[in-house]
Amino acid sequence: SFEIVSVEGYVQLYVRTWVKFRDLVEAAVYAQYPDAEITEVEDYTTNAPNEFPTPGYDLVGSEFKLTNKGVFSIRTYPEFEDKLSGELKDTMAALLESLSKLRPGEQLWVQIIVRPMEERAWLAMGMQVVRKLIGAKIKGKGPSMIRELLHLPLSLMEGTFLPVPGETKTKKDDPPTMMLHLSPGERIVVEGVQRKLTKKPFHTKIRWVYVARKEVFAKGRTFAMMKGTFGQFTILDQNGFAQYNKATTKTDYPWQLQKKFEYLTLFMIRTLTTRQNSILRAYRNRDMGIGAPPSVLNIEELATIYHFPVMQVKAPLVKKSETKRAEPPVSLPVMGRSVYASAPAGSELAQ
After folding, report:
1. Residues linked to residue 88 through DSSP beta bridges, in sequence order
2. How far is residue 161's CA from residue 114's CA, in Å, rounded to a whole number?
3. Cis peptide preceding 55, ω within 30 of 0
4. Is the peptide bond before 143 cis (omega within 30 degrees of 0)?
5. Residues contacting 67, CB < 8 A, separation 6+
6. Which of 84, 103, 240, 340 has the fewest Cβ atoms within 10 angstroms?
7. In this structure, what DSSP letter does residue 53 have?
8. Is 113:205 a contact under the CB 8 Å cutoff?
9. 213 forms bridges with which residues in the sheet?
């Protein structure tokens, strides 16, 4: 689980993983960010109330899902690069800047849970979508023996042999695909799908929770911030992120209905409380199964929505490493090495 957390404007980035994968995660981070500082910490979610409603606090949260099939790509970091200057605009800059502006009494948590998935089935499904987009002639599988036996009596009754279901007749002059007749926009969609299929896919769950004291609670601002942050990755004719309403902690009904049906207010309160506790529990447990169905993102898309900020990000309250890491000298004596054995007899080092 890759997480971005702001506690009263103090921003930190977390990675939650199994103990057996800790060395692998640390090595991957240090390989790309030699000056990074990694420390083990307690779970920050314990600083929030355990259950809602609770006096003095309120909570909202939601999950994101893809607006189209998983084989279609979102906007990734190569498309955020300025073509003239070559400058790369950090895709996390807007989120980090917004998180830095949280006031005392506010907390905002964002988690991205990833889980490897079967690659062969994913690739086969993606290629079917590509063939459909380019209008390729898909040869159907041969009819099964059972289908032939069931079809034979009907053919005899008709006095002729009808084509077996599943067989398709094609003309010799038909082109194998409609690729030459695709518009420029349709070609880009096909290229985007094929580019996504070349990179390793993951089941992904994106969830966020906002907890604050009631006197500073700002639900509308938080929803707008999260919607805008993930809205920048949308490609209208391909894919993007949308809010999953069944996991969202809001129950807004028209005021006229609330006035006409008094029981509706009680129903809204119960529904809101249930959703608040459900999303809080799911966040703390890093649960993949609760809420929206997992989306499919490849490594390029995951790197776009979560990475360590680049130098251009000016968010002042993002936690930065206070010291730089350096390798020890090669000649540094280490217990058990031959440097001790080679010391002259009777010297202090030998003793």
Report:
1. 81
2. 54
3. no
4. no
5. 234, 239, 240, 241, 242
6. 84
7. S
8. yes
9. 57
As a whole number of Å, the end-to-end CA separation of the chain is 50
Q: Specify the 3-state DSSP secondary structure of 199.
A: coil
How remote is the C-alpha of 74 from its chain's centroid? Answer: 11
Interhelix angle 184-197/119-134, nearest 10 degrees:
170
- 27, two tokens: 């090595």
- Rounded to whole angstroms, the Cα distance separating 145 from 164 reads 11
Express each pLDDT in 134-164 by its tens digit. 887 765 554 454 554 454 454 445 444 444 4
Q: Which residue has the tokens 């090669």?
A: 330
Mean pLDDT over residues 9-17, rounded? 94
d(CA 273, CA 59) in angstroms, rounded, equals 9
- Longest CA span, the chain: 112
Residue 106 dihedral angles phi and psi, to the nearest 5° = -115, 145
Whether 312 contacts 91, CB under 8 Å: no
How far is residue 231 from each of residues 64, 74, 228, 248, 330, measured CA to CA in Å?
11, 10, 5, 17, 50
